[in-house]
Amino acid sequence: MKPKTICLIGLFFFVLSYVMFSNSAAFEYFKKPVDFAHWFNLIGACLLLSFNHVFPKNRLNAVASVITTLGVVAHIGLCTIDFIMWSYGDNDAAKAALSEHLSNTPSILFPFVVVGPSLLFVGLATHAGNFIKTNTVSALMVIIGAPLVGFSFFVLKNGILMFLSCLVFVTGLSFLLFKNETKSIL
């Protein structure tokens, strides 16, 4: 399978997970019989590693590849934590105890919950920086969409805006994947 195809499949799973995350009532539905939202997020994030191989090879790409890889590793850790949390079902006391334990363990909290998962967005936005002169609109969609995903979720606590930000981010990446074919569009 071609790396671009893997990237597109990864973007599809990533967006699908954000559709599920964006609606809290529906999100509970997608947690049965397995936590589909986090599985799709995990699969999508892992497949997004392919972006490290489809963009031009230069210094910026090398830095972006390291950041993207760290972000994927952090997504794996975060999804693992979320799977453990999901496994407690309705046991709110166990969930609270795990949350407290994670909050008191900075070596897990920061790389896998607070900072690490954002690195996937930062890495892909850094990749997009390669195209700021040649595919400005697409690159800006990625560069602006990346922080908006986190801002809309953590600051505004708005699931719909988070999803729309993710959609802008993913659309920009899709256009950059096929930059020669979309140059006339954008």
Automatic annotation (TrEMBL):
Membrane found in the keyword field: yes
Transmembrane intervals: 36-55, 62-88, 108-125, 137-154, 160-178
Keywords assigned: Membrane, Transmembrane, Transmembrane helix
Lineage: superkingdom: Bacteria
Protein name: Uncharacterized protein
Record organism: Flavobacterium cheongpyeongense
